[in-house]
Amino acid sequence: ALCAERSARGPGAIGFVEVDDDAGTISAWLELETKVARGVARVTLRGGGGGEAEDRCAVLFTSMRELKGHEEPIGGRRPLGHELRASPKASGEAAAGRGGAAQEPYVLVVGGSQSGLMIGARLKRLGVPFLVVERNARPGDTWRNRYGSLHLHDPIWACQLPYQAFPEHWPVFLSKDQFADWLDAYAKAMDVDFQGGTEVMKASFDTAPNRWTVEVRVDGAETQVLRPAHLVLAVGNCGSAKVPELPGMDGFMGESMHSSLFRGCAGAGDVQWRGRRCVVLGSNTSAHDVAQDLYENGANVTMLQRSPTCVLPTERMRELAASGGYSEEASARGVEPAEADLAGAATPYALRLPEMQRWVKELKARDAEYYARLERVGWRQTWGEDDSGPYMMFVRTFRGYYFDIGASELVMEGKVKLCSDANVAEVRPHSILLADGCEIPCDLLVLATGYNNMTDLVAKLISPEVAQAVGPCWGLGSGTAGDPGPWIGEERNMWRPTAQPGLWFQGGNIGMCRFHSLHLALQLKARFEGICTEPLRLAA
C-alpha cells in the first residue's frame, strides 16, 4: 500500500497523491536521495485487478535537484557579501563577471540568448567557471532585432527563467522587446559571465588534455583562443537557415531574404513595402508572423503553402498550458514553474501520445467552424501522421504548426491571399511562377523555409565527422516524417553526454531549457568536482 500526505499545491509537490480511477493507477511524489545527490521521484502504480494479481509499477520518474556538498548558496548558505569590499581579488572577479570570465572557463557556452543565459545562471550558482559568448552585443539582441510585431507564443507563466519571476503586471504574451530587455537585465542580475560581440569560428577537441581549442573573433577583428573542458551549444534548436534553391532566383529583380533576416515594418517605421507585392514562401509560425506584419503595414501579401500545416487558435494552447500548471490560477495556489515542469516531465512521451490524440479529437469538434472556414479558402490542415497535434510535432521535429494570433483570420478573410499546394516552378524578374501555371507579381520574397538541424552547426564549427558521430539533435525516434527511428523516447542528444566527449546541447522552448538546464549544470558540476558520472548498470 502506498500512503502519502496530500499537498494542496498539485503535481510536482512532494507528498501530492493522484488517483486515476479510469486508468486504475495511483501516483505519488516522493523525495529521493543517493550517496551523492538529492532529488524527487514520481512513482505510478497500476492495480493488478484483485485476486492473485499483483500491483505493478507503471512509471518511475526521477529528477536530480542537487549534489551533496555542492548545494546552491541559498537560504542559510547565502554568502555574506560585504567581504567583497575588503578583498581586491574578489572585487576584480565580481567585476569580471559582468563582462566576461576572469579565468579560463571550464565551460564555454555558445549562444547568449535565453538558452545560454539559463545554463549560465545555473553554473554561476554552482560555482563552475564558465563564459557565455554571443555574436550580438547584448543578450536580448537576438529578439530585439526581429520584426516589430513578434510576441512570445507561450503564456508568461511558462516563460519564466530560473530564479527570477516576471513582474506581476506584465501581459500574458510578452512582446519581443519586453523579453529582450528582460534578458539583458537577467544577465546582470544573475551575474552571468557574458561576452557579447563574439563569434565562434572553429572548435576542435584534443583527447590528451581533454580540452577544446576554440577560436573566437571579438568585435569582428580580434581573435582569441579559449581552451574549455566542455562546450555547450545553446543556440536554440536551429542550425543555419534553410534556403531552398529556386530556379531563376539569380535573375529576380526584387528583394529576397530568409525570414530570420526580416526585421519587420512597424518597429522601425519602415513603410517601403506599403502597397508593394510581397510573397511569403512557407506556412508555419514565421510565415504567418511575417505575413501579418506585412499586411498590417500596408503590403499586398500572398502566402504560398507548400505542405499541410497544423493551425489552432492560441487560446487552445493557453488552455493546454493551464492544464499543465502554467496559469494565473495555478500561481495563486502557489504552484511554481519548477513544480509544473516536474509534473509535465513525469509522463513519458509514449504515454503522452494518446493524451494528445484525445485532445486533438476534442479540438476538431470544438472548433469545427473555425476549420471549415480555413478549408473554404483552400487551407490544408494537418494534425500529424497519427493525429497527435502540434505538441507532438514540436517534440518530434520542432516545426509544422502555428498558434493563431490573428494571421489565420487574415487568411480566412482573404486579406492575406493563399496559394495551397504551391510548388515554385521558377522565379522570374518580377514574379513567382508556380507549377500549376499561376504567376504571382512579386516585389519582396520572404523565405520562411525553416532551419537546418543543430548538427549542421556542429559540422561547420567542429567537423562533418563529429557531426555524423553525434547524429541528429532533437526528436524521439518516433518513425514519423522528420523523426526517424529507432525509438528513444527522449529528445536525442539534448542535455546529456553525446558521442563527442565534452560536447553538450541546450535548447528547446523556454520551459524545457528552464527545467533541463539544471540537469545539464549538475552534470557539468559533477565533472568539475571529480564526482563519478559513470551510469549504474544492472547485472544481467
Key traits:
540 residues; alpha/beta; five-stranded parallel sheet; 22 strands; globular; disordered N terminus
Summarize the structure.
With 540 residues, the chain is α/β, with parallel strands linked by helices. It is built from 15 helices and 22 strands. The protein has a five-stranded parallel β-sheet with strand order 7-6-5-11-22, covered by helices on one side.
Secondary-structure blueprint:
Elements: E1 17-20, E2 25-33, E3 37-46, E4 56-67, H1 88-96, E5 107-110, H2 114-126, E6 130-133, H3 141-144, H4 176-189, E7 194-195, E8 198-206, E9 211-218, E10 222-226, E11 230-233, E12 255-258, E13 277-281, H5 285-296, E14 300-305, E15 310-313, H6 314-323, H7 328-332, H8 337-345, H9 349-366, H10 368-376, H11 389-397, E16 401-404, H12 407-412, E17 417-420, E18 424-428, E19 431-434, E20 439-441, E21 444-447, H13 454-461, H14 464-470, E22 503-505, H15 510-528
Parallel strand pairs: 5-6, 5-11, 6-7, 11-22, 12-21, 13-14, 13-21, 14-17, 15-16
Antiparallel strand pairs: 1-2, 2-3, 3-4, 8-9, 9-10, 18-19, 19-20
